[in-house]
Amino acid sequence: MSRGHAALIERLARVVGSSHCLSSPAELFAYECDALTLDAVRPVAVVLPEDAEQVSRLVGVCGELGHPFVPRGAGTGLSGGAHPVEGAVVIGCSRMRRILEVDAENRLAVVQPGVVNADLSAAVAHLGLCYAPDPSSQQACTIGGNIAENSGGPHTLKYGTTTNHVLGLELVLPDGERVRLGSKSGFAAGYDLVGAVVGSEGTLGIVTEATVRLVPLPEGVETLLAVFPDLQSACRLVGRVIGAGMIPASLEIIDQRTIAAVEASAYAAGLPLDAGAVLLIELDGAACGLADQVASIREFAASEGVRELRVARDEDERALFWRARKGSFGAMGRLAPDIYVHDAVVPRSKLPDVLERICQIADRYQLQLSNVFHAGDGNLHPIISFDRRSDEELGRVVAAGREILELCVAAGGVLTGEHGVGVEKRDYMGLIFSAADLAAMTHLRDAFNPTGICNPGKLLPVTRSCVESGSKARARVSPG
Amino acid sequence: MTDRLSSSVRDVLRQELAGTLRGHEPPLEVAGSRLDLTIAPDSGAELATTLAVLTRESVPVLVRGGGNRLALGNPCRGAQVLLCCRGLVGVDELDAADGVMHAAAGTPLGELSRQARHAGWELPLDPPGENATLGGALATAIGGPRRLGFGPTRDCVLGLEVVLASGERTRCGGRVVKNVTGYDLAKLYVGSLGTLGVIEAAWLRLHPAPRLRLVRVAQFDAAERAFTLALEAARRPSASAVAVVSAGLAERAPELRELHCRPGSWMLVCEFAGDAAVCGADRDWLARAGGAQEAREESVTALRELQTDAAPGGLRARLHALPSSLEAIARHLRAAGAELLVYPIPGVVYASFAPREPAGRDHRAAWFDAALAALEEAKRFAAAEFVLEELPDSRRAECDVFGAAGGSLGLMRALKRRFDPQGLLNPGRFVGGV
Fold first, then answer.
1. What SS3 state is found at A308?
2. Average pLDDT over residues B149-156
3. For the stretch B318-351, what's the b/e string if a residue is b when 16 or more beta carbons lie within 10 angstroms of its beta carbon?
């Protein structure tokens, strides 16, 4: 350890106590990356503050000694948003996990950033309320991380993403100043700084408190499983449902290859192995309005050639349907040593065409491709199964991945719907945005983070060429 | 920066921006500025050229959409040119399968609504103002009565094209309904009163057109009953618009006057929209709870114009507060002489105070100070925030109509400096003189 680092660690430890300042290689190992497991970098130290005051002082120390810092939630992010850079201090929010206030009358909660997403919903369930954003990692991911990434989940089609549920924030700016943005009512005079901070991938400061909206638990829920002979028919039903003005809570598609993997795993749900695709549809809301929607969906599904339409009879069957969806990525892990998950979004009406062409790309590169995705949002998750030990195969994965992104962008889509840009896709930003667009984004970052000390190297392209390292990015955990 | 546009700059503008200029002699007096020229670009490219030239010549501008809300905000300091965006019109794309639309900023909302309806969708924007344009609606981000069902203005914006003060044409977001690709700059531009850039066009997310709309009204002498029921109604699954209106204000809208609101009472206006079965259940619930009577859809649209109602020379404020504090705020402001329009969700109160006496020579009127004191008191006891939307001209120069911006003002100034380094776009109009 260099003398400079020793001095830094001593100063940091003075703020949080030595037991919450980690600096040995064994302790730092777990913080070298998030769920994007390549391009790991060992931080100089990891500090675990307990309140905003400590965060502010830690940031001050980093600034004074010239070390970049990286905010971190639970480390479940899939785009490398919490990856350290050389010389960085990781500021983890895992000890700031108190729910400070629940106001059922006004349907809001005030929480610290380290509160686990699912814990908040569990804590307010007895009031008939929940916190709506529900990323697949919700048992582990934190509200602070969700705010950084503007996380979604299977129910965003109806309930929106994190940005629709954050009313106010306390933020420690990169110079250590603490500011309050927004308010409990959601209004604050001036620019919508809360809206700017949500989804900024931890590059504008560290959120130390959040006021979030709570929503009522739905009165009724209907879960349907539609079995189709092919993927295109399932996509067309999605279009029919959306076009008819319905807003289901979820519209999720699982393709044939994934069905095979799921049925061979512990997540087996009795899905027919010869089906081309299944579409999971969840409707919720006023109980008296659900029967008509189920009837309409039956009619649409029949005209799109559905082989079978199952309606969950009880909570157990509903859980069984969801088990297939939620277990998909775990099951996929059995097929190959590695998987590479994309997160592009295309206009919903383009789904059938884009999916067909994505399959053609995979075939051309002789890669194993499967699809499990949020069809209602047009949010694709093409998954390529491969073995990273083969450089030649890795090269094909990278090349196919770029073609898939280019295809989605050409169809009017975008690079990421919920995983974020992070380090993984920062060098693809030029596929969508012009230099002037990116300069405008830089204006925002620089207004908050003028020295660039806060989470450098994320979200915006860096000047050196990082295409190679960025495009090798792969993930091994379940996305949204 | 001088008060008047110099003749040399005027010549340069005429030369470089021919065809889109109109001179004003004497100068046009709008929103605190004396404007020598109106420039009305017809395309995004013309808008970009215009801003590039104005920035090069350091000419401050007042940006105008439909012109409904030019009085919103602080006086614009020294703008010399009116930049009128109503020439940027048209719907480039309406994807009926996806329920998204791309339109130019000067397109009237009425036209966008018509096209959306024709395609089986609904435009989720209903700000006040007959001639409201898309750009103006996004720049002001003021919701209307259906804000309850539509959500905040920003939620319908999927992507924006914005011309910066430098004349650079930029884009953020996209046309898809879920997107975290890059910073969400659209959130910054929406509601920024044109101080960071000029909106050229937008991708909008449409809402499914409701199959049914049911409007019901009820009257209550007791504020407690009115506000309790209003909040319950606003939380019904099909509620698309819910408002409480003081009798005196209801009298000013013909559509509500015909419902014969009793003096001193509170009128509850509810609209349920969407699925027929759900609307019917909510209607029946209200009938049991409040004995409401049927009313026309115009009772809801009339609320939009009541939002901008103000007696000549009077004061109107928009307060934001938690739903649980609205009844107390309403009682307090009513006692102070205000007429009120209240949206229980998201917790917005429009309070209008009429002048009770002519302003004295020193333009200090007791009624105004009392009204302001009542608003400040509401801010204190209910943690409300308020914006002064209408006030006597003589008072505008004295105060920031947005109140104190608090600790985030430094960030806002930093943003303004980076997006508009010379401070030429709507100078001084926003919070803290930004």
1. strand
2. 97
3. bbbbbbebbbbbbebbbebbbbbbbbbbbbbbbb
The answer to whether residues B180 and A149 touch, using CB atoms and an 8 Å cutoff, is yes
pLDDT in tens, B168-180: 999 999 999 999 9
Q: Tokens 């590039």, residue? A: B52
Cα distance between residue B303 and residue B340, in whole Å: 11
Q: What is the mean pLDDT of residues B29-50?
A: 92
In chain A, residues under CATH classification 3.30.70.2190 are 220-332
Q: Where in chain A is the domain with CATH 3.30.43.10?
A: 3-92
Q: Give the SS3 label for residue B284.
A: helix
- Contact between B347 and B326 (Cβ < 8 Å): yes
**Per-residue model confidence as pLDDT tens digits over B331-352:** 999 999 999 999 999 999 999 9
Round to whole Å and give the CA distance between A148 and A421: 11
Residue labelled with tokens 């020193």: B362
**Partner residue facing A285 (CB), from B237, B321, B387:** B237
| ipTM at complex level | 0.96
- Tell me the pLDDT tens digit for each residue of A298-309: 999 999 999 999
Beta pairing, strands A69-72 & A89-92: parallel
Contact A190 B174 (CB under 8 A): no
Rounded distance between C-alpha atoms, residue B407 and residue B415, angstroms: 14
Q: What is the pLDDT of residue B4?
A: 82
| Distance (Å, whole) CA A447 – CA A36 | 29
Residues of chain A with Cβ-Cβ distance to B192 below 8 Å are 191-192
Beta-strand (E) ranges in B31-168?
33-39, 61-64, 81-84, 91-95, 100-104, 121-122, 157-163
Beta strands in A35-126 (DSSP E): 45-47, 69-72, 89-92, 99-103, 108-111
DSSP string, A161-176: -GGGGEEEEEEE-TTS
Amino acid at A69: F
Q: How far is CA B172 from CA A204, A420, B102, B415, in A?
A: 18, 15, 13, 16
Q: Return the CATH class of domain A336-472.
A: alpha beta
Give the SS3 label for residue B110. Answer: helix
Contact A116/A140 with Cβ under 8 angstroms?
yes
CA gap A476, A329 in Å, rounded: 8
The dihedral formed by the CA atoms of A166, A171, A173 and A177, expressed in degrees to the nearest 10: 150
Task: State whether A434 and B170 contact (CB < 8 Å).
Answer: yes
For B46-75, the pLDDT digits (tens) are 999 999 999 999 999 999 998 888 889 999
Select from B97, B170, B278 the Cβ nearest to the Cβ of A243.
Answer: B97
Where in chain A is CATH 3.30.465.10? 99-216
Determine the distance in angstroms separating the CA of B232 from the nearest CA of chain A, rounded to an integer: 11
* Residue-level pLDDT at A39: 80
**A195, closest residue in chain B (CA to CA):** B187
pTM: 0.96
What kind of architecture, by CATH, is found in domain A220-332? 2-Layer Sandwich (3.30)
Count of Cβ atoms closer than 10 Å to residue B213 Cβ: 15
- Boundaries of CATH 3.30.70.2740 in chain A? 336-472
Q: How large is the average pLDDT for residues B156-169?
A: 98
Are B383 and A184 in contact (CB < 8 Å)? yes
Distance from CA of B321 to the nearest CA of A (A): 5
* Assigned fold of A3-92: 3.30.43
* Maximal C-alpha separation, chain B: 72
CA closest to B184 among chain A residues: A196
Min Cα separation B246/chain A (Å): 22
Residue B29 tokens, joined: 């007096």
How many residues are present in chain B?
A: 434
- Closest chain B residue to the Cα of A409, Cα to Cα: B174
Six token digits for residue B94: 């309406």
CATH number of A99-216: 3.30.465.10
